[in-house]
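Sequence decides. Consider this:

===
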Amino acid sequence: MNSKSYTYTSPGDIRSVAVIGTGSVGASWAALFLAHGLDVVAHDPGPDAEPRARRFIADAWPALVALGQAGTPQPPLARLRFVATAAEAARAADAVQENIPEKPELKARVLAEIDAAATPEKIILSSTGGITPSAMQASCANPERLVVLHPFNPSHLIPLVEVVGGKHTKPEVIEWAMAFARRLGKQPIRLNAEAKGHMTNRLQFALVREAVACLIEGIASAQDIDAAVRYGLGPRWTLMGSLLTLHLAGGNGGMQGILAHAGKAIEEWWTPMTQPQLTPQVQERLAMAAAEVSSGQPVEDWVHWRDEALVGLLDLQRSVERLAPHGSPNKEQETQDYGASAGR
């Protein structure tokens, strides 16, 4: 490990980002970076990667404008350029956002190329949804500047990002990633320990597992399983998380009240009764369920509907947060003088 200390450019002073991999996640990041006035230097070896990314950004732009993230009616695509290699992109930009597929060997090879090309004071952010940062750091000569910044689909709209450091990540790099995420209008959460899939996927797929179990057990139709989330759980979860929801379920007694009243039942409810396996039969049943819940309409139509609807939902979420008992979350933390301490 390189033990030398470096001064990292303040998140507020970043002017360009290398986006390595421009699939749906990378193109989402590119759109958000452009919306916040950053130049994007992109690399993706896939066929037609550049025109696909440009179309994605153009399609994403109206939602970014509606949310107040973008200040121009049209995307500034002149500030996006593609280059021939990941190394060239890493050399040209102030920071790097890596978004390549979740294939450990491929990720290791590309991260080694990025790490060798980017000068040590440049932060490397990874969008990986499941690989631990320590595993990725094994490919880097300067592992202390690599940190996970894991977004959620669609990445340009959903506020949450998970910030996860590896065993070699410097504390100031984690702070840098938190501040950079806030600069982009994101809501970062810091994970204190590494885990496969990080944390939010762990929460998400616990519910997916139970939805699949209910489906194959014949408890309800696919439509009604999704309706249970949309109309029962989802509205509350837009306002508050699982732990606050449980606390309020206890009435004036709060968490202690609900655990005293229904603790044994809760323990039974959260114990998986079925551990579904993705056998060919289950995969076929899920394909049928997908056709049912989507009414057989094209995925593209649902994506457009989702992104348009998210604008109103996110606006509502922000407005009601200001009325919460604890007051509005402080989203101006990124204005502090990070550069005064980073890397020193």
